[in-house]
Amino acid sequence: MNLLRIAAVTAAAMSLGACATVTRGSSTAWEINSDPQGAKVETSNGHQCPATPCSIKMKRKSEFTATVTKPGYKPATVTVTNKVAGAGGAAMAGNVLVGGIIGGGVDIATGAMLDLTPNPAMVKLEKAE
User: Fold this and answer.
1) What are 60-98's pLDDT values in tens digits?
2) What number of other Cβ atoms are within 10 A of residue 83's Cβ?
3) Are 125 and 37 a contacting pair, CB within 8 Å?
4) CB 3.0 to 4.6 Å from 29: which of 23, 48, 55, 129, for a disulfide?
C-alpha cells in the first residue's frame, strides 16, 4: 500500500513540473498598432504583417526589432524584449515549491515564464518631408 501511495505522490508531483509551459505556453500574440493605421510591419526575426493593427504569434523568449512603414511617412522602429511575467513567475515559484527542478528548467528553456514587452506596441508615424 505504501508503494502505491509513493507512486501516486510521485506522479502528481511530476505532473506539476513545467507549470508555466503548461498553463501559458511558449508562444504568445504580439500586438502592434500605428497612428495612422494601415502600416506594414516587418520584424528582424522574419515575421511580418501587411497592415496595422495586427497580431503576430511569437515565442515568449523572443527579442527583436520591428520596423513599421507606410508610404508618405518616416519609418519607425520598436525594440521588443522580454521580462518575467507575474503569472510566469508564480508558475516558476510553484515549480520550486513542489520541487520540480526539471519543470523549472523546462519553463526557463521554453521561455514560458516570460512576456514580450512592449505588448501591445503603439507607434506614431511622422509625416515624411
Assistant:
1) 889 999 999 999 999 999 999 998 876 544 455 555 555
2) 12
3) no
4) 55
Residue pair 84/75 in contact by the 8 Å Cβ criterion: no
Report the interhelical angle of 86-98 vs 101-110 (nearest 10°): 150
| H-helix or E-strand spanning residue 45 | none
pTM of the model: 0.68
Closest-CA residue to 30 (of 67, 77, 66): 66
Sheet holding 76-84, edge to edge: 48-49, 40-43, 64-69, 76-84, 114-117
In angstroms, the CA 125 to CA 115 distance is 25
